[in-house]
Amino acid sequence: MEITLKGDKEFEDIPSLKTKALRINLNENIYGTFAEIGAGQETVRQFFRAGGGSGTIAKAMSAYDKDFSDAIYGIEEDGRYVTEARLRKMLNHEINLIEERLSRDKHPNKMFFSYANTVATIDFAKQYKGHGWVGIRYQIEQDKPYNEIILHLRFRENDARLQQETLGILGTNLIYGAYYKYNEPKKLLRYLYDHLDKDQIEIDTINFSGPVFENVDNRLMSLQLVKNNMTDAVMFAPDGNNVLPAKILYKKNILALRGSFRPVTKVNIDMYQRSYDMFVKENKVDPKNTQVVFEITLSNLRAEGEIDEQDFMDRAKLLCSLGHTVLISNFQEYYKLVEYFSQYSKNRMGLSMGVNNLVDIFDEKYYRHLSGGILEAFGKLFFKDLRVYLYPMVNEDGTLTDSENLKVHPRMKELYKFFKYNGKVVDITDYDPNILTIFSRSVLKAISEGDEGWEAMLPPGVAKIIKEKSLFGYEAEEVYRDQ
To answer: InterPro entries, per this entry (predicted)?
Structure first.
């Protein structure tokens, strides 16, 4: 039974878990191992119960004891078990065993796979809900190179048994999707939630690799996680791969810059450099333990009501080429961003922003959904060890707006003064006055219309990248003008 779509929103005739597992089991060429650590053997159980598993399941194991696990897969340098490195060792080890123990002469048509997970479920105190790494390494043609899908999940349920069952469902969806939806990775991603609700599990990192995924950009898949409400935020590194936010942000001092970066201009970089210089001079801030994050909210990715994926990729390529870590989030309000960071670090945080952004923070309309209104939001925002670094704005008459003459709603004046004079808002004073009239929208318009001079508004090397990689429609416009 195939999955059919109703419109582009709802699924009809979603195969049952038994149907998915049975289809795998009845394919005489799919053959592999299941290695599951930390939550029982919930995935392979689905395949045993479906029937016909003898032709698919070469081995099922759970090296639950840490000493046994170390004896099989080796000891991790950091001593941890629920890590991506551990998962990769499991996949490598199990695939190597299959290749060593099964003769290709005897099994010429077999497509080998290894499914593995290493997870920690909720603790007895129910303070730590648990998380895990799940992956599959597999072939879609016999004796061909392997493909790989690896993801990180966070449990949302408050019961260990329920988390185990959820893991088994996700694992079954992953194996089925890997074999029957690999040519449609966006759909494969959505089908991971078949028979699951978004409040059961969160997928915050996924990476595809191997020959069948050679055209998949993992940054674009990262965007899909947020777009599909599978997670509130994802992060990717300058190398283009998605990275686990917890790994990057854990116990770090965090400086965040929000923007459209369409494209990144000299103003963006000046704001970053000046605020960073101020941030690392703060008490308790160690430059070696500081992470800078360029954040783009989902609302900044929308064009005409839909996300323009090519536009997103253009921005991502630019920021990555400059060596920056990028966060894509669903957080329209800043306090939600700070709450998100606070999951991973209690150290000092900084937000670098322009005048208009700070004015928006003091706009009550963004907090009407909160029972405590703006005061509740500000309690979450400024209660933390946080400081706002404000970049000035040049007005039409040539005057500057900074924290001293910034205008907020009359009802917000006293609240603003409270935070301003308690040191929560500080001005960036060592800025470059020659670039204050540069705006991303003006640069973008100049690129699209073929005007001259836009290159000088961008950081060194950025214009070259835009031209070489035909970003923001540059090449199309050039070709159009030449015709």
So the answer is: Rossmann-like_a/b/a_fold
Tell me the C-alpha distance between 160 and 125, whole Å.
12
Which pLDDT band, with edges at 50, 70 and 90, does 7 fall under? very low
pLDDT at 430: 94
pLDDT for res 6: 35
Q: Does position 191 have pLDDT exceeding 90, yes or no? A: yes
Which residue's entry shows tokens 């089991």?
A: 25
Residue 272 CA, distance from chain mean position: 22
35 token code pair:
């290695």
- Torsion sign over Cα 297, 298, 299, 304: positive
Interacting residues of 105 by C-beta distance below 8 A, sequence separation 6+: none
**Rounded-to-integer distance, Cα 110 and Cα 141, Å:** 8
Q: Quick check: 464 pLDDT over 50?
A: yes
Q: Could you tell me where the beta strands, DSSP code E, fall in 144-289? A: 147-155, 201-209, 233-236, 242-243, 253-258
* Side chain identity at residue 291, one-letter code: Q
Helix (H, G, I), strand (E, B) or coil at 269: helix
DSSP notation for 319-366:
HHHTT-EEEEE---SHHHHHHHHHTT--S-EEEEEEHHHHHHHT-GGG
pLDDT for 379 equals 86
How remote is the C-alpha of 7 from its chain's centroid? Answer: 27
> What's the pLDDT score for residue 10?
42
In the chain the domains, ranked by start, together with CATH numbers, are 4-216 (3.90.950.20), 247-435 (3.40.50)
302 pLDDT tier (thresholds 50, 70, 90): low
For Cα atoms 211, 166, 3, give the angle at the middle one, nearest 5 degrees: 55
H and E: helices and strands count for the chain: 17, 20
